[in-house]
Amino acid sequence: MKVTILGTGAYGLALSKILVENKNEVTMWTTFEEEKNELLNTKKSSKIPGYILDDSVKITTNLKEAIDKSTLIVIAIPTAFVTDVCRELKNYISDNQHICIASKGIEQGTCLFIHDMINKQIKTKKIGAISGPSFAIDLVKKIPVGLSVASKCKSTLNIIKNAFCNDHFKLYPTTDIIGIEICGSVKNILAIASGIVDGMGYPISTQAMLITESLHDVKSLIKSLGGSKKTILSFAGFGDILLTCLSEKSRNYTFGKLIGSNASKEKLDEYKKNITVEGLYTLKSIYKLIRNKKIDIPIINIIYDIVFKEKDPIILIDHLSI
To answer: Which of 2, 17, 126, 187 is catalytic?
Structure first.
């Protein structure tokens, strides 16, 4: 089948390798002409060391051309740009095309998750999402990984599974797209907290305590927002939270470690200026969402107080010790 990936970031590029390996016809879309030319000319990307773009992959800056005759459209762009891209996409997408969300996050201001952002612009039930413990570099190296795939549309689930599944890329199906998206968003916030614990000098035992306690809070959040509590035990739930909260590859973890080690405001600002810390934007939105809906999620409140109200990180340890 023809599959279009919107976005040429590290994860989108890595997914293209899986799709090509599975004999799909792949087109990638970017809004940047310079990025398109660099990928086509060099077949390399600085976003993934050792990555080589397959010769069969087409790249375009024309959105209409990109999705023409595609069965599956994969959203792999930063959350902040999803609404604008979908506003244009709705002019070209047809009723028989399916959408797969590979991005994670929640929109600033509206506090909408990505499937809601898409539905606001494009009225379709053919929306799915993939999420789970997987770094782009691991996908490229064909290391075995397992992710969750969620959709309320059975045909969409099957299309996504047929496009991606092989002997090293496993997808476990569910209908709980709400829960999957919540887990994919909150994991970056929890990674900041885990980094804080590490930065304060506490061992992995304390990080394990944080993760375990946090799972209960995330489960409550999923239930409160209409998802299934069971999703916390999925690849997208516990699996992704575990990976992100214990990996120093995570930018969110690294930022939290700076906070925990009492780094100066100047050093924190410099890091935020040069590195995108997704968890910061998500934390603002989730905090606003739970306040609007009057949901009590202690771990979110504590991390927010440390990050944005500059409270002493010891309050996180105090919370775990209660």
So the answer is: 187
